[in-house]
Amino acid sequence: MTATNSLGHHVVGIGIEPTTLRAKTALDGRITQGVTTIPATVARHGAELLAGVRSNDGTRDARDHRADIVERIGDAELVPLADTYYPTDYLVGRLLAALRAELIERSGPISGAVIAYPSGWTRSQRDRLALAADCGGFSEVELIPAAEAASMTPTADDYACGTGPLLLLDLGRDGGISLLDRKATRYRLRRHARLRDLVARGVFATDDTESGEAGESIIVFAKYFLRQSDCTVEALGDVRAIGVDPRDHGLLSSLARFVGGPVHVPSQPDQAIVDGATRRALTRYPAAADSDETAVHFRLGHLADLREQRGDDGAAAELRAMGDAIYESRFDMGDSAGRPGALADLLDRADALLSKYREPTREENHGRQFTRRGRG
């Protein structure tokens, strides 16, 4: 297949799910129709490691085929495939590389990507995903929680939301519930819980769902979650549901009675996460003519980008990490004569020192030699 529109500005949004990787494309500022999907499987075929569609022909020996790679990312143990062992981030990287190759074949080179990962992932899993994205060939990439991505997709009805938090109900196969706070122009994740975790803790059983009382089960789930989040229904500014059939009026009516107002649903609730990630990619990686407001002043590989500078002398700056972390730093922007900038003490939100002062060379300003040191 020949790449189309290969000279256009091409950005993508990717949704990471336990069994699939899904992507949507935006070309020259417009989101295209359709979703590209590959299975999250890898396989060994002789000496060759296959990923995605090529690995999933159903003829592989069980020892040579794995379908649990995404769920295992962050594990310290290597994954056996035939007689070879692989790190999980490398295997997920191969999946991302397979997806990237298909997207490039269809629409040309990719200028930037936003990857939405499961909202309940740990810091270790997010760090491993950053390594996997690098392995997969995505040099310009941002990682965000799936709930934040879903909050960026428009709903089927036009309405004015309140200023309070957003309660997002994911009623899909790997469902969960998220509470997000409004920060400037977007929502940021405060808390998340998976449905399966609350079932395991005995908050409620799955019998209700099996007997057709799904709405009541979700309400029990939501009440418990809001109580643990120190939030009330009255404080909510917006309630949305994704992964739900918009024609399931019984379920949506039960939820509406619980929150005392409407529950808003995207026009394509099963694509809310990947659609929102694509919309984020459009603002995160604008075309050159629109890029002044989001210029990257200093890149630390897959650790963070310096995107805001506070103070005329550049002494205070904000580094935005690949995920949802924000680091404070003292930073020297360099000078007009070309002297490289310098990164001073880098602190996370808990004021834990992550790196001491160093002066990077000009090449390091855009390279990967700067790495974050762990706490301790």
UniProtKB/TrEMBL annotation:
Q: Which organism is it from?
A: Nocardia tenerifensis
Instruction: Quote the SUPFAM superfamilies the UniProt record gives.
Output: Actin-like ATPase domain (SSF53067)
Protein name, as recorded: Uncharacterized protein
